[in-house]
Write a structure and sequence with these properties.
The protein is an alpha/beta fold. It is built from 9 helices and 5 strands; from the N terminus they run βαβααβαβααβααα. Bound molecules: adenosine-5'-triphosphate and D-gluconic acid (GCO).
Length: 204
């Protein structure tokens, strides 16, 4: 299974990625590490990226997703994935065509949408140190955002909860959709999980 952790800048993708990967033991791909240098420079100058700027980056992440699927691996990818067309590009390497087009979802790939109020994210971005992305770009992120529909294999995570709570919410969602191939393994092997035990619906 591939889990794409998505949301605007400052929604907590990096935070939860780390927390989740520790618990799940899945391979991690931090989307920001794959931006072309020009994109980083642009964001650091306080300019929002355009669709054109994002295309090479999204295609690069599509390649990673594709390779992980081919390897039959479980992996987490973080990516803002703000627009539906971007998510389609991540899944299929192309935007949907006007007629017919790609299906909204791809088997085995799920989106965890980190969702929360503008003000809270703004406060977190202002408090965040040593990052090139300024809080001033947040409005442009919200302007671009097209929240994912359920049909896109997406579920929403409330960022007002603590990081460990959010990680647990995501794990629970994965197990609920029945695609968490690592679920049984880590449920029984992780001390963290053993303390809490599996959700009632999968109790042996
Ligand atoms: N649930 C949370 N509770 C408290 N603080 C949080 C929470 N989630 C994230 N933060 C804090 O908010 C800030 C932004 O989080 P993070 O850097 O993970 O966001 P991001 O989505 O990866 O942003 P970007 O896309 O700009 O890299 C960080 O300083 C992080 O510690
Ligand atoms: O689509 C975008 O505009 C970008 O992905 C941003 O979200 C940045 O990657 C990130 O916020 C920088 O840390």
């Amino acid at each position: 299974m591939i889990l794409v952790v998505m949301g605007v800048s400052g929604s907590g993708k990096a935070c939860h990625l780390t927390c989740l990967s520790l618990q799940l033991g899945w391979r991690l791909h931090e989307g920001d590490d794959h931006h072309p240098w020009e994109n980083i420079e642009k964001m650091a100058r306080g300019e929002p990226l355009t669709d054109q700027d994002r295309i090479p980056w999204l295609l690069q992440l599509h390649g990673i997703i594709q390779r992980e699927i081919s390897a039959g691996a479980n992996a987490i990818v973080t990516c803002s994935a703000l627009k539906r067309a971007y998510r389609q590009m991540l899944l299929f390497g192309e935007t949907p065509r006007p007629c017919g087009g790609s299906p909204p979802a791809r088997e085995g790939v799920w989106f965890a949408f980190l969702h929360g109020p503008f003000r809270l994210i703004q406060e977190r971005l202002v408090a965040r140190k040593g990052h090139y992305m300024s809080a001033d770009l947040l409005q442009s992120q919200f302007d671009a955002l097209e929240p994912p529909a359920d049909a896109e294999n997406a579920f929403t995570v409330d960022i007002q909860r603590s990081v460990p709570e959010m990680a647990s919410d995501i794990e629970r969602a994965i197990s609920t959709v029945g695609l968490g191939e690592g679920w049984n393994t880590y449920t029984w092997s992780s001390p963290h999980k053993a303390l809490r035990g599996p959700p009632a619906e999968i109790q042996p």
